Amino acid sequence: MASDLDYVLYVVEQLKALKPVTYRKMMGEYIIYVQGIYIMTVAYNELYLKPTEEVIPYLKEVIKRPFYKGGKANYLIRDIDDDEYLCLLAKVTLESINK
Q: Distance from CA of residue 52 to its chain's centroid?
């Protein structure tokens, strides 16, 4: 089952403070880029964050699992309605990738 574009657009809207935020469809699912860097995936209408150790203290809940069978585990983010929370997670992830 592919993800809905409306779900992806909602996540992108929640992250708008971190412009530019873009997305790309891949095999029915979506990759989200923040400031040109891949940090999130939408799969089966669920949001997954690229795993970094630095983001763990900021997670409301730590659920780490792959978004496809046999894949690497990512953090499942269930609270997509809190834009400040999503932006914080994205910023911390970007900082840890860029160091």
A: 12
Please name the residues in contact with 46: beta carbons below 8 A apart, sequence gap of 6 or more: 67, 76, 78
CA distance between the termini of the chain: 36
Local structure of residue 60 (DSSP, 8 states)? S
Question: Tell me: domain 5-92, CATH 3.30.1460.30, correct?
Answer: yes
SS3 63: coil
Answer for the pair 75, 55: CB distance below 8 angstroms, yes or no. yes
CA-based nearest residue to 44, from 75, 20, 68, 63: 68
In the 3-class helix/strand/coil scheme, how is 3-36 assigned residue by residue?
Answer: CCHHHHHHHHHHCHHHCCEEEEEECCEEEEEECC
Give tens-digit pLDDT for 68-84: 888 899 999 999 999 99
**Residue 96 structure tokens:** 């840890």
Is the pTM for the entire model greater than 0.90? yes
